[in-house]
Structures are given as structure tokens and as C-alpha cells.
Design a protein that fits this description.
- The chain is of the alpha/beta class.
- The protein has two domains: 5-233, Alpha-Beta Complex (Spore Coat Polysaccharide Biosynthesis Protein SpsA, Chain A), CATH 3.90.550.10; 237-352, no CATH class.
- The protein is built from 14 helices and eleven strands.
- The chain has helices at residues 15-28, 48-57, 71-84, 103-112, 183-189, 201-211, 230-233, 237-251, 254-259, 261-278, 281-290, 294-310, 315-319, 334-352; strands spanning 5-12, 37-44, 62-65, 89-93, 97-99, 117-126, 138-141, 144-146, 152-154, 178-182, 215-226.
- The strands form two sheets. Strands 1, 2, 3, 4, 5, 6, 7, 10 and 11 form a nine-stranded mixed β-sheet that branches. It has a two-stranded antiparallel sheet with strand order 8-9.
- A hairpin with a 5-residue loop joins β8 (144-146) and β9 (152-154).
- The longest helix is centred in the C-terminal third of the chain and has 19 residues, at 334-352.
- The radius of gyration is 20 Å and the shape is globular.
């Protein structure tokens, strides 16, 4: 019997006017039984105009308005409504995508055939600027990689598309662009941590899933074409940098925090200098202010205790697969590539032998 599946999309301001129609049309073409699909659009930072646009252009979707723009909270709202509606599998999908007709069917099949997996990620391809032959497709993500200093980046970015057999395990984290999670997994790990607001939310959800003893796998025949724009990923520098530290303080055991303190200080010094040079020093100061508040440390301690209740895999087992390199695929930085990465990679290789 086919599982009842929820698909959650999040709109933010003018996002829907740019991307919704193409995404909607590809959702309507899915081969999965339509009566087993529930679509939820969370209208984040909702206004009367955006609400009307969504209702007029996607009438079969349930629109859930929110006001504050918190992306993690928006996904929680959509998933919790789906659970109330008895959906068994929960899918998060970026609106700036178009989908292969078998996209959803293959995502569901990945979890159906792999009971040890809590999450399955689609093969995410870069949407071509013009119609091109499929052999020219480039990869956006085959699963994401975690750096030991809290950075996250995609694997195989820009490589030519290729056939992948079976369901490879993702040792890092699933991209929030397109993945499916079991309802039971989502409930067990306690949903998204809304303190992350946006960015690294998929990373923290994936870490919790793996700490709970469940795998993350790639569903290579579930294909998504992502209209990825690097400039959109760097506009929220505050959350990118703050959430890197928030992730470390939330998940890393004390001994690992001690072992990485030196490269952490070195990297922060480099980023501080870079922030002054590039004009976002005030953003860096805002990050420091966040971690000067004892209330935020109370939240971190509470979250660490909550994770401890369901954790059955030691964090060291996950950290063994962290990378020593920092990869910003769209930025060529000789200092990073020729000095920082070789030194940090050697340091991390040594540190991993200690736990």
C-alpha cells in the first residue's frame, strides 16, 4: 500500500512569484498517487498579497501563514500539520526546483526499501539555464559534507551527472533542498531546532537523526533540478556564521571542543579580518553578542540534554566522517586552498586518532 506523503514548501516574500508555477506544474506531473499526497505551503512573513497569490495559483495546497520568517519554524509548522493529517512520510522541498516525474515515487521507495534509514535525499542537479541534453547535466549535491569547524558544503558540486546504483549512505547530512523523513524519526528527534532560524537547519536535523541510530541515504533516481544561486546563500551571513558556532556548542562533546579550540580561534581570527576587509564587521559583532548572552547558553544546555535522551550513537562515530577541508565551491581562494586546508586537514587527521 502506498504511504501517505506530505510535501512542505516554504514561501518567503516574493519567492513564490519567482518560482512557484514551475514547481507546482512538476508536482502535478508526479507519478505517485495524487490521493496519497498532501501539499502544504508555509507562507513565511505572510501578507495579504502573498496569501492571495498562493491560494489563487495553487488551490490544492493547504496554505499555512506565519509572520516572522523563521525557516526552521516554518518547516516544523508544515510537518506538524502533516502529522495531524496522518501523513506517514514527510518531505521538505525548495520552491526553486523542478522535479522529475518519478521524484516522489523514488523518494518513498528509498525509505520503503531501507528500514535502517530515517532520511533519504534526492539527487539534486543544477537546473540548466537553457534546455540541454541530460548528459550535460551538472550535480548540485549527492549529499552534504560536514567540516569539523562546523561548515557545511555539498559533495560532487559541478561534476557531470552520472548513474548511481543502489542507495549509498550519506555520511554527512541531507540537503534541505529535497529530502524525505519518516514521521516516527521526526517525532523521535524532536523536530527542527527553531533557534537556528535559517541555514544549518538541515545539518542539525541530520545530526540528530544519525545520533538516534538511523542512516541517511541518497535516492539517486529521485531527481531534482535546482535553480541554485550562490549569491542567495551568502546574503544571510549572520546566520551562516552564528549557526556554525551554535551547531558546535549544541552537539560537540567537551573533549572535542577542547581539541579543536586552536583551529577554531585561528579560523575566527581569519574571518574577523575578512569581515573588516569586506565590510561586514557589524555582522561579526552581532554573532559575538549572541554568544555573550547567558540566556542563549541556557537554551544550548537544554538542547544538549534533550538530545542525550534519544542518542544511541556516540558523536565520535559521526565525527570520524567530518572533513578537514573547507570547500567553498564558488570561491577560489589561494590562501584557503594552499595553506589553511592542508594544515587543517593534517590537524584533523591527527585529532581523529585520539577518539
Amino acid at each position: 500500500m502506498n504511504k501517505k506523503v506530505a510535501i512542505v514548501l516554504v514561501n518567503y516574500q516574493d519567492y513564490a512569484t519567482r518560482f512557484l508555477l514551475a514547481c507546482r506544474d512538476s508536482l502535478r506531473r508526479q507519478n505517485y498517487p495524487a490521493d496519497q499526497i498532501s501539499i502544504y505551503i508555509v507562507d513565511n512573513a505572510s501578507c495579504p498579497e502573498s496569501l492571495k497569490y498562493l491560494q489563487d495559483n495553487f488551490p490544492e495546497a493547504l496554505i499555512l501563514p506565519r509572520s516572522d520568517g523563521n525557516y526552521a519554524a516554518a518547516n516544523n509548522l508544515g510537518f506538524k500539520q502533516a502529522i495531524q493529517d496522518a501523513c506517514q512520510y514527510l518531505v521538505t522541498l525548495n520552491m526553486d526546483t523542478e522535479l522529475d516525474a518519478n521524484w516522489l515515487q523514488e523518494l518513498v521507495l528509498a525509505l520503503d526499501q531501507n528500514p535502517q534509514a530515517g532520511i533519504a535525499q534526492s539527487k539534486i542537479l543544477l537546473a540548466p539555464a537553457t534546455n540541454q541534453h541530460s548528459s550535460e547535466m551538472k550535480i548540485n549535491s549527492l549529499g552534504n559534507i560536514i567540516n569539523f569547524l562546523g561548515f557545511g558544503f555539498t559533495s560532487a558540486y559541478g561534476e557531470a551527472d552520472r548513474e548511481i546504483k543502489d542507495y549509498p549512505e550519506i555520511q554527512g547530512y541531507a540537503s534541505g533542498c529535497s529530502f524525505i523523513i519518516r514521521r516516527e524519526t521526526f517525532e523521535k528527534i524532536g523536530a527542527y531546532n527553531e533557534e537556528f532560524y535559517m541555514y544549518h537547519d538541515d545539518l542539525e536535523l541530520s545530526l540528530k537523526t544519525r545520533l538516534a541510530g538511523q542512516q541517511i541515504i541518497l535516492a539517486p533516481r529521485s531527481r531534482v533540478f535546482h535553480k541554485y544561486e550562490f549569491s542567495r546563500s551568502v546574503q544571510m551571513l549572520y546566520y551562516l556564521e552564528r549557526n556554525r558556532y551554535l551547531l558546535i556548542f549544541t552537539f560537540y562533546p567537551g573533549y572535542l571542543l577542547f581539541l579543536i579550540v586552536l583551529p577554531l580561534i585561528i579560523m575566527d581570527g581569519g574571518l574577523l579580518f575578512f569581515s573588516i576587509l569586506k565590510g561586514w564587521f557589524n555582522t561579526k559583532k552581532k554573532v559575538y553578542r549572541y554568544f555573550c548572552s547567558y540566556r542563549n547558553y541556557v537554551k544550548i544546555i537544554q538542547e544538549r540534554r534533550r538530545i542525550k535522551k534519544f542518542k544511541i550513537v556516540p558523536f565520535s562515530a559521526l565525527a570520524q566522517h567530518f572533513s578537514g577541508r573547507i570547500e567553498f565551491q564558488e570561491i577560489a581562494n589561494p590562501l584557503l586552498n594552499n595553506v589553511v586546508n592542508p594544515v587543517f586537514s593534517a590537524y584533523w587527521s591527527l585529532i581523529k586518532k585520539l577518539f
